Amino acid sequence: MALFLSIFPIILLIWLMVKKNSMPSYIALPITAALIYAIKLFYFKDDAMLLNATAASGLVSTLTPITVIFGAIMFNRMMETTGCIDIIRKWLATISPNPVAQLMIIGWSFAFMIEGASGFGTPAAIAAPILMSLGFNPLKVAIFTLVMNSVPVSFGAVGTPTWFGFAPLNLSAENILAIGRQTGVMHFFAGFIIPVIGLSFIVPWSEIRKNLGFIGIAVFSCTIPYVALAMVNEEFPSLVAGAIGLMVSVFAANHGWGLSKDHPKDPNAEKVPFAQVAKALAPLGMLIGMLVVTRIKQLGIKGLLTSKEEWFSFQLPFDLSKITVSDSLTITFGNIFGQGVNASYQTLYVPAWIPFVFTVWICILLYKTKFKDAWAFYAATFNQTKKPLLALMGALIMVQLMMVGGDDSMVKIIGKEFAAMAGEHWVYFSPYLGAIGAFFSGSNTVSNLTFGPIQQQIALDTGLSVTLILALQSVGGAMGNMVCINNIIAVCTVLDVKNAEGAIIKKTVIPMAIYGVIAVAIAIIFFPLR
After folding, report:
1. Span 412-435, pLDDT tens digits
2. CA distance linking residue 72 with residue 313, whole number of Å
């Protein structure tokens, strides 16, 4: 019964969102969260005040994705208002008018690099609007960017899912590197197939076949350095490989390598002066620069932005919470409702105010934007994020409630029961547990933190290789990004696509399932299982 009641709300949620007259996520998710609250209270007998504190922590957690979404939308509206998007569109057409080239440059290589720098769903938030401005269908762009943002994810945000996601397991540095190596190899082989599937959602197969040469160049210029770096380092594979791939794919597209002749450059097309291109790309350059310097811990800025050194604190009345503000402006709500539940918001580190909002402020001055235009895109951004805020509140409260109870939580019950059913055949199911974690939480890192201990224990109990099972977990968390509710809401919001979450899940679940098959096959072929 515990397993049924743990799974039922998720099945109900999916049904509500994919049925013929689907329910919008901003209604379906809060309803599901309320149902889970009731199940936890009346069946699992969890303390009501603990559930209330957990729900409150979910509300605080909502600040992270909603401010990232807000910043991304405002940035994209600024790019449109200032004419930067129009210039970038013309410039990309001079590199190659071929839609496959444009999709691979922006949706694969560029997004690959951004994932390596930031994570947090930032790649889709930046790449998707550029692709939409090039004339691609917004719904198809949403599906495409979700599918493409999978291969680099295990080493996203400078490797956070790998080195931080498995940190609580007290593994040796050698084991962490082994997990990274095995993860990189699985993703490398997935790179043969997943980008092609992603393209199939947005362009005809005939177009893909004619441009397979260029697709191969774009894919391998990212994945070869990616897997090579994963052999020696768990922080930089996605960031560095994405940068290399972006340079190679732009150069190849400019020379027409591997591209069909069906989309020849217009010799009479207006040449965009380099100075205009540089000015239009400046906001993106600022974004990337800020992301890189604030994510690489060796530069020292990351430590300043994530410092937990207390600046000041105060107690809210009636023991509601102790609020602590660190010198990095990280706001922590401690001991919520006296239940020992904590939640925090890293004001300067979450990629919202830095780099999105900060870049917008600079660009308002740089492009001499009129006050009424700046106010217009701010107001439009605010209005566009109201309904997604409700959806994200429901999603994060749901996730937090499902994690209440430690080893007896709904999430752990699902993982343990599935593992018990599989036994020594667990290798076939391991990546899908990682995907479930990402579906719940919206994060490969959180999936690894949540299910890493379960995966490790299963491996020890069944005699399977611990590093291999954890690598499959990490790959699963990455592929789960395709069906993650948070990411789907984010990209739909940025593209202003309404009530399409269920339709998107129906599409993205297919490549996610295929990804898991690829990961398992590579694990069995290339690595010892015990």
Report:
1. 887 778 778 887 889 999 999 899
2. 31
